[in-house]
Amino acid sequence: MNEFEASITDLSHDGRGVARIDGKTVFVSGALLGEQVRLRIRKRHRHFDEAETLEILTRSPHRIEPRCSHFGQCGGCSLQHLDAVTQIEAKQRVLVDNFARIGKVEPETWLPPLTDEAWGYRRKGRLSVRAVAKKGRVLVGFREESNPRFVADIVHCDVVHPALGPKIGLLGELVGSMDAAADIAQIEFAAGDDTIALVFRHLKPLSESDRAKLVAFAQEHGFAIYLQPGGVSSVHPLWPEHPRLAFRIPAGEGVQDVELEFQPLDFVQVNAGMNRRMMQRTLELLDPQPQDHVLDLFCGLGNFTLPLARRVAEVTGVEGEHGLVARAADNAARNGLNNARFHVANLFEDQRGTDWARKPWDKLLLDPPRAGADKVLEYLPHKETARIVYVSCHPASLARDAGILVNQHGFRLKSAGVMDMFPHTAHVESIALFERR
């Protein structure tokens, strides 16, 4: 028997309902906390099962009608059926639970959640492409929720930048008209303030006819087109000849903004509006002063480094990717900042012998990937560092590292809170302030 009735007692970290059937945990897609549902087991595992909702018997008061007609098929969003306030509350609960369970710490103050525009926010992403013979056309979109091997059959996306989201179907028509329809593997998109770039990953050389079709599409819709015939280093513009991707971010009240140029495959924060709000909160928490010397680890393009340079005596950014560091330095020069320095270093290896790691920094900013910063925290911060702001994309690694800072380095967790970088998904972005006791 694969069909059951069950009560949903929790939400999982990926936004699925959690039920118990015969003592075994079942993750139920499409179900919300507090609901009674009829479900079908889709996949069995040793310690848990996965299921889909067949019928909602008792409806959550927080359930809403998803805005997107592709919800439930497309795996890009998992929480469109949950109202916005409850989405944030669910993410806050995840952060609270991780601090208590993993870090065994609790902030003295919970920061109010940061939110911004919930639709059309996504300026960076990767669209899968697949020619499907049975459908007689090419599908362009995100992976299916129920089977990530397949591309969801979508024609629009409400969370993608509004200049691109309504045109997903047109991309499928474009690729379907090309000689290389079966050889386009993916299309990555990146939006600056004035330009949207599309990067076509193609497995074989493109014909002149295909190149002409891409140029015509770019001219009609106002996109910049890049080609990627190989690895990351092979990416190059097709049209226009010299496209420019850039975005501006505020350096704080009364302080001149900075502008960052970037390449289409560079890491940038997905949500431009939230990035600006996150910047404001980061500056408030770090409280940079004109005499401060600040270390910015996992600095990327200088997203935090350059706004900080407008406000402090010196800031040094450290990042593992050479290309990002080179562009961060170029951005500093372009913005007339001579007090921002950058270094290439693998921060998951011991760097305590470097000059920048030995320096007595007043303040420290951390913005690591999902793995967190525990390797760095083996030798930093020094006793001179009085304040740390930690921006996190993974609550479990933040909680672990918070425990290290509090229990091993003598800091107190002053405040923490969530930031809704990815509305309608279960992704939890957060920020925390640590002060020396």
From TrEMBL:
Stored Pfam families: TRAM, tRNA_U5-meth_tr
EC number: 2.1.1.190
Record-annotated active site: C393
Domain of life of the native organism: Bacteria
Binding-site residues for [4Fe-4S] cluster, renumbered to this chain: C68, C74, C77, C157
Keywords: 4Fe-4S, Iron, Iron-sulfur, Metal-binding, Methyltransferase, rRNA processing, S-adenosyl-L-methionine, Transferase
InterPro entries xref list: 23S_rRNA_MeTrfase_RlmD, MeTrfase_TrmA_AS, MeTrfase_TrmA_CS, NA-bd_OB-fold, SAM-dependent_MTases_sf, TRAM_dom, U5_MeTrfase_fam
Ranges for domain TRAM: 1-55
Principal EC category: transferase
Residues noted as binding S-adenosyl-L-methionine in the record, renumbered to the chain: Q269, F298, N303, E319, N346, D367
Substrates-to-products reaction catalysed: uridine(1939) in 23S rRNA + S-adenosyl-L-methionine = 5-methyluridine(1939) in 23S rRNA + S-adenosyl-L-homocysteine + H(+)
UniProt xrefs under HAMAP family: 23SrRNA_methyltr_RlmD (MF_01010)
Family the entry assigns: Belongs to the class I-like SAM-binding methyltransferase superfamily. RNA M5U methyltransferase family. RlmD subfamily.
Main function: Catalyzes the formation of 5-methyl-uridine at position 1939 (m5U1939) in 23S rRNA.
Name of this protein: 23S rRNA (uracil(1939)-C(5))-methyltransferase RlmD
Organism: Dyella nitratireducens
Species classification: Bacteria, Pseudomonadati, Pseudomonadota, Gammaproteobacteria, Lysobacterales
Gene name, Swiss-Prot/TrEMBL: rlmD
